Structure formats: structure tokens, C-alpha cells
Amino acid sequence: MTALVVTGASRGIGAEIARRAAATGRPVALNYNRSRAEAEEVVTSIRTAGGRALAVAADVSDPEQVEAMFAHIDRDLGPITGLVNNAGVNGSSGRVEALDPKATARLLSVNVLGPFLCAGAAIRRMARRHGGQGGVIVNISSAAARHGGPGSYVDYAASKGALDTFTIGLAREQASEGIRVNGLRPGATMTELSREWMRSHPDWESWVIGQVPLGRPARMEEIARAALFLLSEDASYITGAILDASGGWVSP
Fold first, then answer.
1. Where are the beta strands (DSSP E) in 79-168?
2. Burial class of 138 by CB neighbour count within 10 A (0 to 12, 13 to 18, 19+)
3. Alpha-carbon distance values, 2 to 127, 189, 215 (Å)
4. pTM for the predicted model, two decimal places
5. C or N: which end of the chain has fewer Cβ atoms within 10 Å?
6. Neighbouring C-alpha atoms within 13 Å toward the C-beta of 215
């Protein structure tokens, strides 16, 4: 099977997508920036289960590091036909007038420029015009793109809104190249970061319950299964779509 690249895969949703994709027999490249030990733990768990995986360091906002990462994957895993743009960072919390410009600039660099760079590297390998066999790109967005994150993380929400627009434009641009592009928009999800947040913000879960019609945060495996659907042939006629997986929070 051809390889899948998952950015920001050392933990959370990215790691869960990588594990589940590898369990289907697909070689998986897990990108990380600083969390090498965590990424290697995920790789070890995949290999122990009989899968094939590789951890590759790269800051996705750096063009040279992105190209070096994909070249490494070419050598060690072979042809790429899938990319999950999952890597992302949070900005500075608070109202817009109190945001830290440096933190927001970094957020936009990783959350917006990063997917552009990684998609470009993947397309140069997957597109028919470049001798590829086609493929699939899934961009991990956020319910924040719909509700806007007022009073707390408007910069993060804006970055995900940009990602949604990128998803639509890229899907239309690359359809004739055999590449499908879709977005996945999770809501509140019980990742490791969410559990850490709950320890210092014990009211968070009850707040989520008040926002989400299904009355609970998502489990990581629920989001990962949605991503794998979009990557699969079961979604072969779906491109330019953004799937809400938010428990009804921001669904139309």
C-alpha cells in the first residue's frame, strides 16, 4: 500500500489517525516538531502491532524542512498518496485587543502556511501532471471556524476559517489531477491537551455539555474514524466538502 503522511502526529487526533491508518496495513509517516519521544512512542506501538511507521521531524511552516521531510519519506516509505494536515498551534488567549502579535503570527504560520507547504509537497508527488497516481488530502479544521472563538481565541478560529477556504479552492484546483481534498471540522475533543486543560479548568466539560447537542466531547477515535472515511474509497466521490464532527455544535 502507498504511504500516508500525518502532520502533528505525536499525540492527540493526529496520533490516533496514524494508529488507525497503520492498522489497515498502510505505511504511515508521523510528523512532529519538538515531541520526538512521544512520536517515537506512537511509532513503536504501530510497529509492535505489525504496522509500518516512521517518525519525521519538521516545522511545517519552514519550506526547507517540509521538503526534506517528504524526501525522507520518499526514501523510507515509498510513494505517497495521502496527507492529513493536522499540525496546529494555539495562539495567545484573550480578546483581540490583548493578543500577543508574535504568538498570533506563529499561529498563522503553522496553521495556514503549513498546510499550503505540505499540500504543495504532496501534490508534487501525487498529481497526474507530475507523474503521480492521485491521492487524498484531509485538512483538520475546527468548529472554531464556525463559531469564531469570541473572547478567547479569535486568531485560532480565523486560521481554521482560512483552512476551510483553502480546502475548497484546492479541491477544485486538483480534481483533474486525481486528488481529492476535504476538510474535517472537530468540535471539543478529549485529547491529552483537553485533559490537561480540564485539570486546571474543572468547569470546561460542563461548559462543553452546554454547547453541544450530543451533550459530551468527542472521543479521539470518533474523529479519527471520520478522517479515515474521507481518506478511503468509500468517499471516492467527495471532494471540496467539510465534514462537521462537532456533536451538532456548529452543524447547519
1. 80-85, 135-140
2. buried
3. 14, 29, 38
4. 0.95
5. C
6. 0
Q: What is the pLDDT of residue 130?
A: 98
Catalytic annotation present for 156: yes
How far, CA to CA in Å, does 183 sit from each of 14, 141, 153, 226?
14, 6, 20, 10
Answer for the pair 249, 143: CB distance below 8 angstroms, yes or no: yes
d(CA 106, CA 120): 20
Tell me the β-bridge partners of 30. 6, 55
Taking the CA atoms of 96, 100, 101 and 103 in sequence, report the sign of the dihedral they define. negative
Helices (H) and strands (E) in the chain, counts: 10, 7
Confidence at residue 23, expressed as pLDDT on a 0 to 100 scale? 98
- Please report how many Cα atoms fall inside a 13 Å half-sphere around the Cα of residue 96, on the Cβ side: 7
Whether 138 contacts 167, CB under 8 Å: no
Q: How far apart are CA 229 and CA 214, in angstroms?
A: 21
Identity of residue 133: Q
CB 126 within 8 A of CB 177: yes
Look-up: residue for cell 484546483? Answer: 173
Which residues of the chain register pLDDT less than 50? Answer: none
- Among residues 32, 153, 156, 237, the one annotated as catalytic is 156
